[in-house]
């Protein structure tokens, strides 16, 4: 489990290599503001080996955040992360490991008949109720998430997962009203509060793709205020003194800046952007898609933005733009091969944009 002392010691070891604000607060400790993402890539042994080598290299170079999910690459990404954490020459308690549950995962490879496999492995066994399954592949019911958490602990080889996300809860909105989704989130949060009290997770949150960056009238919209309220209620139901809901994850980059530009979350003084709401609520924000799944590394940022952002390459500029947004704790970058690690990590040797310079991009 990530700890205060180990993260500060890691920062002391690597901090001089990076520019200001590279390490940022996470609870009582600190984490790197660039993290490893593990979404992309084929579910092959060759990709596993490349990921393992890349993650070890990143951890030994000053990147202390690794993000994955049980469904990424058919559970292979979690298993690779576990092997890399064990192999890397760092203190395990210095690295923040995050994973997610919500999409029914295959096991190692995609089956010939996915629907039949899901029914056999999850429905017939009673792990998933068909009424809770959306689009044949998504479930956030407490029993299912409980099962997925156990599998993730085994895949990662960890006693405690530092940050566990309910994965894309807005997927449920395709087949049920928002009130029912909030109710189910509260039930699942209650179980996660219990698992936190038992020591299986340290903190939890929600990882989204659309929910927190669309207008309030969008079919995929979720109210972050309501989600936080349900987490607080869950803590009470679990007899915890305070909620362990501490983080959100959402896409953010120069072409997907909605979390900053769309004011659709109800704060204490009116509507505001998700990033500012999260900041005011004391939530850590982890951004995904920093390179827009590689497009910004090749196409680059718009010229008027690129000239403002520090970095030697298009990828570095894109990473630094993402981690310049207000309230962002860490920006995740896919590092599926060792060749990408050095360039991505080196982005942290350049300072992010200041608040005025960042705001000026949108004027």
Automatic annotation (TrEMBL):
Gene3D superfamilies: NADP-dependent oxidoreductase domain (3.20.20.100). Residues 34-361 form the NADP-dependent oxidoreductase domain. It comes from the Archaea. InterPro entries: AKR, NAD(P)_OxRdtase_dom_sf, NADP_OxRdtase_dom. Pfam families: Aldo_ket_red (PF00248). This is Aldo/keto reductase. It comes from Halosimplex aquaticum.
């Amino acid at each position: 489990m990530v700890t205060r002392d180990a993260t500060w010691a890691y920062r002391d070891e690597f901090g001089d290599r990076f520019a200001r604000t590279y390490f940022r607060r996470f609870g009582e400790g600190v984490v790197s503001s660039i993290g490893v993402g593990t979404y992309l890539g084929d579910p092959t042994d060759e990709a596993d080996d490349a990921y393992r080598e890349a993650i070890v290299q990143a951890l030994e170079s000053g990147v202390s955040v690794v993000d994955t999910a049980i469904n990424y690459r058919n559970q292979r990404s979690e298993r690779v992360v576990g092997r890399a954490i064990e192999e890397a020459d760092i203190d395990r308690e210095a690295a923040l490991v995050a994973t997610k549950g919500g999409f029914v995962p295959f096991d190692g490879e995609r089956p010939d008949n996915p629907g039949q496999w899901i029914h056999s492995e999850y429905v017939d066994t009673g792990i998933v109720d068909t009424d809770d399954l959306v689009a044949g592949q998504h479930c956030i019911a407490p029993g299912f998430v409980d099962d997925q958490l156990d599998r993730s602990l085994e895949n990662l080889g960890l006693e405690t997962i530092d940050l566990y996300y309910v994965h894309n809860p807005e997927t449920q909105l395709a087949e049920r009203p928002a009130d029912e989704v909030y109710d189910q989130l509260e039930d699942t949060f209650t179980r996660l509060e219990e698992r936190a009290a038992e020591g299986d997770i340290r903190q939890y949150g929600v990882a989204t793709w659309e929910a927190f960056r669309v207008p309030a009238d969008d079919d995929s919209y979720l109210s972050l205020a309501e989600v936080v309220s349900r987490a607080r209620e869950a803590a009470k139901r679990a007899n915890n003194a305070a909620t362990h809901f501490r983080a959100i994850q959402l896409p953010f980059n120069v072409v997907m800046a909605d979390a900053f530009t769309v004011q659709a979350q109800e704060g204490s003084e009116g509507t505001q952007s998700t990033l500012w709401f999260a900041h005011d609520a004391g939530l850590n924000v982890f951004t995904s898609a920093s390179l827009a799944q590689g497009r910004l590394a090749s196409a680059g940022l718009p010229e008027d933005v690129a000239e403002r952002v520090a970095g030697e390459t298009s990828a570095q500029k894109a990473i630094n733009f993402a981690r310049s947004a207000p309230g962002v704790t860490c920006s995740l970058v896919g590092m599926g091969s060792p060749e990408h690690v050095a360039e991505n990590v080196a982005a942290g040797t350049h300072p992010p944009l200041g608040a005025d310079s960042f705001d000026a991009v949108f004027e």
